[in-house]
Amino acid sequence: MIGGGLMGYYIIGGIVMLVSTLVSKKLKSKFEYYSKLTLKNGMSGAEIAQKMLDDNGITDVKVISVAGQLTDHYNPSNRTVNLSEVVYSQRNAAAAAVAAHEVGHAIQHATAYSWIGMRSSLVPIVSIASKYSQWVIMGGVALAASTFFGKWVLLAGIIMYGMGTLFAFVTLPVEYDASNRALAWLENERMLTQEEHAGAKDALKWAARTYLVAAIGSLATLLYFISIFLRRR
C-alpha cells in the first residue's frame, strides 16, 4: 500500500526534478554567456555591490567573498552581502546582476520589507518541518491502511510539508522584488550599457524561474498528499 500510495509522489518528484534540471542548465548557460560580456565601466561585482549600498545609505553591511559557486546570498544575522569568488572579482554583466540582486535583499532588510520579514519568521519552523515531513507522511500512508491513527499521522506530515510549500511561495516575491530593485538601480544610475543591462535582466529572469519551479513543484506534491489523505477519510 505504501508503494502504491506514494507512486504519484515519485512521478511528480521526477517531473519536477527534470524541469528543475532543465531550468538550472539554462540558467548556467545564461550566466556563462553573460560572464563574457565585460562591463564598459570596468567595475567588479564587489564594487557594484558596495556602490549600491552606499547609494541607498546602508553603512552597516559589508561585502565579502565566499568560496564556492552560486553561493551568493545576503545574511541578515551578521549583515553581510556574500558574493561567490567569481562574482566578487569579475567585471561582467552576470556578476553585476548577482551582486546588485543580493544588495537588493539588504535593502529589503533595511527598509523592513514585509515579505522578507515573513520569510525570516518561517525559517525556524521550516528548518524542522522540512527535515521530518516526508518521513511522517510515509509513516502515515503505511499506518492509514490499517489503523485509524494513521490518517492523523498523515495529516500531521501534510501540515509540516505545507509549511515548506508556504515558504517557497513567500520566497517568490522576495526574490522578484530583489531583482526589480537591482535592475532599477542599475538603470537609474546608468551603471550598464543597454546591452549589459539586457543581459543582467535576462540572467536574473532565469534565476527567478528556479524559485518558481520549486514553488510549483512543492504545491503539486502537497496537493497530491492531500488527495491521499482525502481518499483515506
Descriptive account of the structure:
With 233 residues, the chain is mainly alpha-helical. The protein has eight helices and three strands, in the order αααβββααααα. It has helices at 2-5, 7-34, 45-55, 85-89, 93-110, 114-144, 148-188, 194-231; strands at 62-66, 73-75, 80-84. A three-stranded mixed sheet has the order 1-3-2. It starts with a helix and ends with a helix.
Q: What's the short story on this structure?
A:
With 233 residues, this protein is mainly alpha-helical. It contains eight helices and three strands, in the order αααβββααααα. The protein has helices spanning 2-5, 7-34, 45-55, 85-89, 93-110, 114-144, 148-188, 194-231; strands at residues 62-66, 73-75, 80-84.
Shape: elongated
How many strands in all?
A: 3
Q: How far apart, in Å, are the first and last alpha carbons?
A: 16 Å
Give the biggest beta sheet: 3 strands, mixed
Please list the strands of the largest sheet in the order they lie side by side.
Answer: 1-3-2
Helix content: over 70%
Element order, helices and strands?
Answer: HHHEEEHHHHH
The gyration radius over C-alpha positions equals 21 Å
Task: Note the total helix count.
Answer: 8
Helices and strands in order, then pairings?
Layout: H1 2-5, H2 7-34, H3 45-55, E1 62-66, E2 73-75, E3 80-84, H4 85-89, H5 93-110, H6 114-144, H7 148-188, H8 194-231
Parallel strand pairs: 1-3
Antiparallel strand pairs: 2-3
Helix pairs in contact: 2-8, 3-5, 5-7, 5-8, 6-7, 7-8
Features:
233 residues; mainly alpha; three-stranded mixed beta sheet; 8 helices; elongated
